[in-house]
Amino acid sequence: MSDTAESWRGKRQEIAEEQDTTVALRPASRKLLVELVRPYKWMGLGLVVAVVAEAAASLAIPYLVQQVLDFGMPELADGDGSSLTRLLLLMGVAVVVQTVGRVAFIRGSGVVGNNILLSLRRRLYEQFQRLSIGFHDRYTSGRAVSRMTSDIEAVQELVMQGLDVVVASGLTIVGATVLLLYLDWRLALVAFLTYPLIFWLLHWFTRASTRGFRAVRTKSATTIVQFIETMTGIKAVQAFRREQRSRSQFRQVAGEYRDANIDVMRVFARAMPGIQYIGHIGTVVVVLVGGLMVLRGDLMVGVMAAFVLYLRMFFDPMQDIGQFVSSLQSALTALEKISSVMEERPEVADPERPVPLPVARGELRFDHVRFGYIDETVVLPDLTLHIPAGQTVALVGTTGAGKTTIAKLVARFYDPQEGAVTLDGVDLRDLDAPTLRGHVTLLTQENFIFAGTIAENIAFGRPDASREEIEAAAAAVGADVFIGEMPDGFDTDTGKRGSRLSAGQRQLVAFARVVLADPAVLILDEATSSLDIPSERLVQNALNTILADRTAIIIAHRLSTVAIADRVLVLQHGRVVEDGAPSELIGGEGRYADLHRAWLASLA
């Protein structure tokens, strides 16, 4: 829920992350950028050539205009049109080169830029998949979505516009300045009087827009977090009638996002017209001074015309550079955030030399295992446990006793700080992920049902399974009965997160997945706690099938599920305080007997 301390802590973490960024790229960010660009270095060189050719052709046109006015036209008046023809042909060539260069750059940069972005999206997506559960537990979904959307879009501006602005605008400004001095140094000095104002305004604009864009990114991230958080918990929002409160919070963060964007637009509204205004003033002054020089015969008309054209070529790119410098801050900030994710290393990493385990019997051992989550007390202080292959073990105990932690260690979502967890005598840390996932499967009370058909969801663990194998797996757990009643049978669309299926039906689909995947070790974490009695009976029947001939760890508060276990472990503060068959513990005076009597009383 959006009101919880955890959610707001995540938002504060997101905001702090957004505000701690700077323009300077860290070595990791530079390395990432180089790796992305390196495959396209030759195409990039071709783009630079296209931009340089376009800029050179653009700079040549005012000079050719000057030559036409000062030499071509007078010679034509004297009856010689050869110079004018030659100059007009050169102008035509310059226009063609400029056009071809622009077309080549737009098409080439589009291909290169989008390929780079595709590579970045793939790498980031694969990195998110590669990182351990511990990372995803602390990294909010809003931050992950922000990395994949707004941050990628910010980098897109850098990739798609950077080369054009830096090379083309830079060449144009430098070239125009040099040619102004070449045409007439006296008039150039007059034009240069506006340069300090332009550079001061650009400096102010860069600083102000940097602060503004940083605020925009902060508010954007907060808005994304608020939206995703509310939509993820929409059932709870509606169940507890928190729509008005959620709307109020979203209005607030969305309003702050709007205000931040308005502030940036105000900066643009001052800077961009300011640059234009200074450019117009400079042009007017140059025209006045140059006009007087023309009247006195100190300046040719063609030089005057070319001078004004070059002056405009100097001022126009200034606006592009100003906007690019501002978006550059946003892009570099985004690149820093993306590279920080790419720098993350899985807390549970594959071994350099994995031990092969093609066939697993399912024997599990905890050898003096000590484990605690980050910033929390130790959950398992010193656990030693042996589960023979093929045995079904139920874990019971109060909340926080360590039941789910044991399940996560067996599934290797985490590694112990001390000791070892072994499968058939092999430390789980010596098995690569495909081998481990092929032998160990974890099912929870909310098994994720993906958008698609029922058949596709059953085959999730074995995509290469035939239709006959899928149907056989469903029949093994009794799921074929309800599937046969569906309008399209196995081809029925499950809806978003299995919304078209009941809780019991979703669990049966998950059990069919297990039968099809056929792991040696199965972990059931509260597999029936959210089911009603009829659904629980269906699932209980399916359990007898899926638990056969495999090692199983069952975590359950409902003792009806525990009853099918061969062995019960009662946990307290991460230690095993009772260990025995359910029938033996029920007849005793221990903790499990108390739990069983309380459960019977609840059924009366």
Automatic annotation (TrEMBL):
Location of the ABC transmembrane type-1 domain: 45-330
Membrane-topology descriptor: Multi-pass membrane protein
Protein's recorded name: ABC-type multidrug transport system, ATPase and permease component
SMART domains noted in UniProt: AAA (SM00382)
Source organism: Tessaracoccus oleiagri
CDD domains: ABC_6TM_Rv0194_D2_like
Chain coiled-coil ranges: none
Location in the cell: Cell membrane
